[in-house]
Amino acid sequence: MKIKKLHFADHPFFGTTDMDFTDRKGRPLNTVAGINGSGKTTILKNSGQGMSNLRLLWVRLMRTWF
């Protein structure tokens, strides 16, 4: 999986912001770097949590359709 963009809405640390993880040519980057306390782990945890929530939503939708 290659994440190109993330959107945080009313997040306690980031507020409402968009993050772009591509280079100038639009290719996804595979490194997140920063000083301690800059939010690297928060980005990873929240993106994983968001993916998990999407999967649960998809499963619920499939159950109602079939």
Short description:
The protein has about 70 residues and is α+β, with helices and mostly antiparallel strands.
Q: Name the helicity range.
A: 25-40%
Order of helices and strands: EEH
Which strands sit side by side, in order, in the main sheet?
1-2
Let me know the average pLDDT: 79
Biggest pleated sheet: 2 strands, antiparallel
> Uncertain spans, ≥5 residues at pLDDT below 50?
none
Question: What's the β-strand tally?
Answer: 2
Backbone shape: extended
Cα(first) to Cα(last) distance is 28 Å
Radius of gyration: 15 Å
- β-strand percent reads 15-25%
Q: What structural category do the secondary elements indicate?
A: alpha+beta
Describe the structure.
- The protein is of the alpha+beta class.
- The chain has 1 helix and 2 strands.
- The protein starts with a strand and ends with a helix.
- The model has no long low-confidence stretch (mean pLDDT 79).
List the helices and strands and how they pair.
Blueprint: E1 5-11, E2 15-20, H1 40-65
Antiparallel strand pairs: 1-2
List its traits.
single chain; 66 residues; alpha+beta; 1 helix; 39% helix; extended
